[in-house]
Fold this protein.
Amino acid sequence: MVRAGSVRRESDSSLFSRGRLDTLSPQKRSELMARIRTKDTEPELRLRRWLHAQGLRYRLHDTALPGRPDIVFPSRKKVVFVHGCFWHRHDNCGLATHPKTRAEFWRAKFASNVARDRAKEAALLAAGWGVLIVWQCELDDLKRIGRRVLRFLDRGRTSTGGL
Ligand SMILES: [Zn+2]
């Protein structure tokens, strides 16, 4: 969607570099955070296109399942989550930065994200689903991560399965 007098990219990044994000009103801040979250979905789209090109068919964001997994393979009873490294706190990852201001706010936010992810995963495993987490930074090498998803999907299947 293009708005008249559209938002300039550089103004977004300067908000962060100057730490001004924290001086915004809660509403402005959540608007900004929503935009960042939207950007996080681009790598997921690339992965989905790649999987589709391999002949795989899947459901998206199945609300019937715990945690509304990103990519669902119902016949295999397997799901894939594509996690943004910042929001979901990828261990030892350069993208999982710590904002310098309002440290306590961010610590609580991240802790609740991670706890929620663990609870979702545990609920899915308990219901007999296989779960694979794919990290945003890993999608730089799309083929490599795509092959990992294929291996994950084939795990526990007989050799007659195919794709
Ligand atoms: Zn990462």
Summary: The first helix runs from residue 9 to 17. The longest strand covers residues 78-83.
